[in-house]
Amino acid sequence: MPIRAVIFDLGGVLVRTEDPTPRARLAERLGMSPAELSRIIFDEESARQATLGAITTQEHWETVRWKLGLSPEELPVVPVEFWGGDTLDKDLVGYIRALRPRYKTALLSNAWDDLRQVLEEYWKIADAFDGIFISAEVGLLKPDPRIYQLALERLGVAPQEAVFMDDFTENVAGARAVGMHAIHFSSPEQTRLMVEARPELLGLIDQVSGLLASVVRNLKTTELFRECYKVYRDAQRAMRDLDLKRRRNN
Question: What pTM does this model have?
C-alpha cells in the first residue's frame, strides 16, 4: 500500500530542548535536580490527569505550585524558565508543509488542554496539519491503540498507509501494534529519509526495530546493548543504501 499520511509527535520531535541551561538554573534555584523538577511537572498524577483532559492545565500548575512550595506570584516564571531552552524546529515544520497535498499530515501528541491555542496563536503552525489529535481533547494517551485508531479514522487512511514519528519507543511500538509504519525519531534528517522511503523499506525497518526491541528487553549488560544497537544502525544504513540504489535505477 502507498503511504498517504505522515503523523508527527510534538515534544521531542518538532519541539526539542536544545539548551538545558534555563531548566537546570530553575531547578537549582528550587533546590532540586532537573530530573526531579521534570518528574513533578510531567510524571505526577495531576500531570497524567491533565494529559487525559480530566483536569485543566491551570489546575495541574496549581498542583505543581503546591509541590514546589511557591506562592501564586512566584508560579508564572516556572513554565517560562522550564521551557526556556525548548525550540520549535521551523525547518521541519516547513518540510511538513511541503508534504501536502501529496500526503495528509497530522500531529498526535500527549499534551494538556492548552496545546491547540499554543499551536494556533503562539507558534502559528496549526495550518501545517490536516489533523491535530491532542490527548487532553480526546481522553486517550499514547500508546493506547485507540488514539492511533482515532487518528487514522479521522484522516481516512488505513494503518499501512500511515507513517508515525515519535521520540518515545513505547509510543512507536504502540503505533506498530495497530499496523502503522512507525519510526523512532532521532533527527530531522532521519525524518526526511524515512518519509521518502518506499513502503516495503519501511516494512523492513519495522521488522528490524521490533526484533531489536525484543532483544533489548532481555539484555543483561550494557556491552550487549551496544552491540545490538550497532547491528540495528548497520541495518538502517544498509536499507537506506538499498533504497537509494532503487531510486537511481528507476
Answer: 0.81
